[in-house]
Amino acid sequence: MGGAVVDEGPTGIKAPDGGWGWAVLFGCFVITGFSYAFPKAVSVFFKELMREFGIGYSDTAWISSILLAMLYGTGPLCSVCVNRFGCRPVMLTGGLLASLGMVAASFCRSVIQLYLTTGVITGLGLALNFQPSLIMLNRYFNKRRPMANGLAAAGSPVFLCALSPLGQLLQDRYGWRGGFLILGGLLLNCCVCAALMRPLRAPGPVPGPAPQRPPRRLLDLSVFRDRGFVIYAVAASIMVLGLFVPPVFVVSYAKDLGVPDGQAAFLLTVLGFIDIFARPTAGFITGLEKVRPYSVYLFSFSMFFNGFTDLTGSTASDYGGLVVFCIFFGISYGMVGALQFEVLMAIVGTQKFSSAIGLVLLLEAVAVLIGPPSGGKLLDATHVYQYVFVLAGAEVLASSLVLVLGNFFCIRKRPEAAVEEEERRKPPADVRVDSREVEHFLKAEPEKNGEVVHTPETSV
């Protein structure tokens, strides 16, 4: 196609599981924090924007919605860019775009201009950082990958706890325009994180002719032939319909029960604080030798736990009940956040992960745009918050059943044709195999011998 792929993840290079990987993990932690917390943090400026432009809350809420839609919906575009140019150049470009969007927003004179700058440009910039950072994390960690994913995912609650009060402080001192300008400067740190994403290189020259690399597709749609990926994508899309609904409505639910505004807002702080510890803990547990083969089932349990928490939260009748709900929701939400990409990595493997995550995020973008608005319409029609929590819980529970049943019946049982092919390839019992040939085979094809790629069979 003309351009060199800088950090494609050379075939046969074993993940270092440390070393420079810790710097990559730190960069991924920061990128994840900005990507997930920023759409929620800008909501502190909404009241000021409403007074400035004379608009309603629904108009300002579209800023966060567009940010999230860009973060999820541009997944295939990010996959194409990464496969074409490499992770580091894409992330550097994304950091500049994210910063440029917020700086330009500080000069906006209408809410439409805010949609374009803060929503589209900054959202695209964050998307171009988020997905490549996960790809690089997958290349640097293998045995410790569950723990690395959990630590990186902890960036979301940590940055949410930091960016929200920082945004309020900036608005009080400098107004929303000055706040947007300073936040734009902070987003330049994404470029620093991009510089940490050093491509993996072969340790030294290999004697003999260099192996021919198969042509790399910009967007590998062959992942849809993998039943494990299809089941995961369907389950994740259903899950996202209800996963983000309770955090959106829990504060309003508390106010409807007569709880003061300050105490109601504190519920999100409780949820975020628990989430900070739940994500790395879930990652550490998943990385245990006896637990990791069952990571798919653990992910399904976390989804079931989250859905069940939503259903029980609908019975809360006072502030204490909502605090207990937020504690258990924070635990289950953290487990889901730590495991979702780890399971996807285990299903599709290293080489197809860049395309797989882009397609999954595109499907989830549709669900993100449907989930919270559908909960809002149900609330407008019934004026009963319990129904919203029941709907969200039912959706997440359904997703857990889709994943565990699909995994058990469709992935765990290998096709008979594959078993027959494996039997056909086995050498006859009376044929002796030279040990030098075995050694050459293991060195020539490390990916097929358990060093890099994880298939659904090996992950279950």
UniProtKB/TrEMBL annotation:
Residues 21-418 form the Major facilitator superfamily (MFS) profile domain. One of its GO terms (molecular function) is lactate:proton symporter activity. InterPro entries: MCT (IPR004743), MFS (IPR011701), MFS_dom (IPR020846), MFS_trans_sf (IPR036259), Proton-linked_MCT (IPR050327). The keyword Coiled coil does not apply. Keywords: Cell membrane, Membrane, Symport, Transmembrane, Transmembrane helix, Transport. Its main location: membrane. SUPFAM superfamilies: MFS general substrate transporter. CDD domains: MFS_MCT3_4 (cd17430). The keyword Secreted does not apply. It is found in: Basolateral cell membrane. It holds the Pfam family MFS_1. Belongs to the major facilitator superfamily. Monocarboxylate porter (TC 2.A.1.13) family. NCBIfam families: 2A0113. This is Solute carrier family 16 member 3. It comes from Neovison vison (American mink). The lineage of its organism: Eukaryota, Metazoa, Chordata, Craniata, Vertebrata. The gene is SLC16A3.
